[in-house]
């Protein structure tokens, strides 16, 4: 997959394509260790509910969209009249802030999020769009996924690529498959930690 495809300029809205049960939005984090743990547990629950790679990335984007909306709303007046007649028209339908990439650019331009955070969210949005439109099935260990994922600023160094150096006639297929599954789980776990940390940091920010 060419590198430039990870950063498209198009302003597509995030669509939900994988069927899943109704979900609760992420509760806003509160102070205290128990509340922080409950907040992170909810994020993990949302991510773990999607077993496929496209579903997982889609869940990550949905979580990030909620965090971004949380920050955008902080920038506007909170009284009922303003929300109903001024704020909602900006965010809904054909409003100027209806597209998620536009809201992302807004909070970055306002200095609410860092450049690294902006680029990580933008990369995940682009990857989600790519997966939605090509319709192919991927594993976390595929180059099409590892390529963009390894570019995330917030991800821990990924484990080295798994390769079997045994000749084909000397390979224990069951052992090989187990090692591949283990490697894939390590990649997924690294991505889970990265996304959980990013969503948590966004929710803990204040617009002003």
Automatic annotation (TrEMBL):
Gene3D superfamilies in UniProt: Nucleotidyltransferases domain 2
Entry-linked Pfam families: MtlR (PF05068)
SUPFAM superfamilies: MtlR-like (SSF158668)
BP term (GO), one: negative regulation of DNA-templated transcription
Bias type Basic and acidic residues, positions: 1-18
Ranges for region Disordered: 1-32
InterPro entries named in the record: MtlR-like, MtlR-like_sf
NCBIfam families (alphabetical): PRK11001.1 (NF008234)
Name assigned to this protein: MltR family transcriptional regulator
């Amino acid at each position: 997959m060419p590198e430039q495809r990870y950063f498209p300029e198009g302003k597509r809205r995030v669509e939900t394509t994988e069927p899943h049960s109704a979900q609760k939005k992420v509760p806003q984090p509160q102070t205290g260790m128990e509340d922080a743990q409950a907040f992170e547990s909810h994020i993990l629950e949302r991510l773990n509910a999607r077993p496929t790679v496209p579903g997982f990335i889609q869940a990550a984007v949905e979580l990030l969209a909620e965090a971004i909306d949380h920050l955008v709303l902080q920038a506007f007046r909170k009284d009922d009249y303003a929300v109903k007649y001024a704020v909602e028209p900006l965010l809904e339908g054909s409003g100027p802030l209806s597209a998620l990439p536009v809201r992302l650019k807004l909070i970055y331009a306002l200095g609410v999020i860092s450049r690294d955070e902006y680029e990580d969210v933008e990369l995940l949005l682009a990857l989600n769009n790519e997966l939605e439109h090509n319709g192919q099935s991927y594993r976390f260990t595929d180059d099409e996924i590892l390529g963009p994922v390894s570019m995330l600023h917030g991800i821990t160094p990924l484990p080295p690529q798994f390769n079997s150096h045994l000749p084909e006639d000397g390979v224990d297929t069951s052992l090989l498959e187990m090692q591949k599954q283990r490697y894939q789980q390590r990649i997924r776990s690294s991505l889970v930690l990265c996304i959980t940390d990013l969503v948590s940091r966004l929710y803990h920010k204040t617009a002003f």
